[in-house]
Amino acid sequence: MDFLFNFNILFYLLAYLAGSIPFGLLLAKIFAKVNIKEQGSGSIGATNVLRVVKQTNPSLAKKLSIATVILDALKGTIVLLIAMAAGAGDATLWGIAVLAVLGHCYSVFLSLEGGKGVATGLGVFLVLIPIPTLIGALVWFVFGKVLKISSLSSLLGLTAVIIAALILNNGLNVGSNAPMYIIAFIVYYKHLPNIIRLIKGEEKRVI
User: Fold this and answer.
1) Number of domains into which the chain is organized
2) 133 with 125: CB under 8 angstroms?
3) I need a surface site. Which of 1, 13, 95, 140 has the fewest CB within 10 A?
4) What are 83-130's pLDDT values in tens digits?
5) Using CA atoms in the order 186, 154, 75, 64, what is the torsion angle rounded to 10 degrees?
6) Residue 207: inside a domain, yes or no?
7) Which domain holds residue 184?
8) N- to C-terminal Cα separation, the chain
9) Which among 105, 98, 107 is positioned nearest to 178, based on CA atoms?
10) How far apart are CA 92 and CA 181, in angstroms?
11) Considering the domain boundaries, does residue 124 fall inside one?
């Protein structure tokens, strides 16, 4: 049982459990009295919070959506900052980042279901590769305003983060870009239904 008290293992468990907290689901239930798992896309993310809550309480929907984005991003960010303060190495930090995103997408509290990982991925990337992430956030914002398709703007923003990190040679300091690619793959994979709808021209806009 000594491995459970290993420095890295403790932070990996903390990252996964923190990532698993379904803030969107909790906020919608507490403040809007709706279950977003049973409505809309069934996702626990900010877009579905906005879409579902807007049906009954438009004035509250945007506030809860913004709160969901912030809290989902902070899930990974806070654990990373604590680990950095404790002297964790770069490899451990990237392990924490991957597990926080995994926790959000495959939550232990939701029978391994969850969200799409965009906000949590943004939170961990902002700590570990800040400049590429800010570029990606700008791309997401611009395309979100122009296209008003949440999934597409999110995927374009994520792609911009990866490209910017490679162009700027924003090294991960772990000898490989694999952790960044793993996070991107998880987010892309969770968006497969959205990608199929985009190809078919059936993806809904956020109005």
Assistant:
1) 1
2) yes
3) 1
4) 999 998 888 999 999 999 999 999 999 999 888 999 999 999 999 999
5) -130
6) no
7) 2-200
8) 52
9) 98
10) 16
11) yes
